[in-house]
Automatic annotation (TrEMBL):
Record's keyword annotation contains Acyltransferase: yes
Phylogenetic classification of the source organism: Bacteria, Bacillati, Actinomycetota, Actinomycetes, Bifidobacteriales
A molecular function (GO) term: acyltransferase activity, transferring groups other than amino-acyl groups
PROSITE patterns in the cross-refs: GNAT
Identification of the protein by name: GNAT family acetyltransferase
Keywords from the UniProt entry: Acyltransferase, Transferase
Length: 169
């Protein structure tokens, strides 16, 4: 069994963040971005995260031998102050590490970090036919509170229903 670790993402992680996200875009089925992003676009995205929100790099291993294999992010659910304490979660794992417990680890990190940051509820949006991510949400106790039919295209041109999930922290 692989040991995983994580750290808060910095500019030094931008090449890995870009590669991981672009792999998800190109593969299809997990994001509504339809074209690969540039490192500059990822930098602007990373720079947009202000406390209490953050991006974490998920590593296989730890220390000098750690290999970035995914990332997880906590972002604002809505910028209006009445929604403070509710966040939006996202995570992406490189294809070769999917199905090996990295997604479970990433979601556990997100929940722990949400609690440490005094969030009261976490939400996420997942393509409804993404069985692995939907199953992980159920396993962690998230509730699907909505389904938007034929809502988003992926890079392959596939139209997906989108599920909306929440978790009381």
């Amino acid at each position: 069994m692989t040991d995983y670790s994580y750290h808060v993402a910095t500019d030094a992680d931008l090449p890995a963040l870009t590669d991981i996200y672009n792999a998800a875009i190109i593969r299809g089925g997990s994001t509504a971005d339809t074209e690969p992003v540039t490192t500059e676009q990822r930098k602007a995205w990373l720079d947009s995260f202000q406390t209490p929100y953050a991006v974490f790099v998920i590593d296989a291993g730890a220390g000098d031998t750690a290999e970035p294999i995914g990332f997880a992010a906590i972002s604002a659910f809505n910028p209006r102050p009445g929604y403070d304490g509710i966040c939006s979660l996202a995570y992406y794992i490189t294809p070769q590490w999917q199905g090996r417990g990295a997604g479970k680890y990433a979601l556990g990190v997100l929940i722990d970090e949400c609690r440490a940051r005094a969030m009261r509820m976490a939400c996420t949006v997942i393509f409804a036919d993404n069985a692995a991510s939907s199953g992980l949400m159920e396993r962690f106790g998230f509730t699907r509170y909505g389904l938007l039919p034929q809502a988003a295209y992926d890079s392959k041109g596939t139209l997906h229903d989108v599920g909306f999930w929440s978790y009381a922290l």
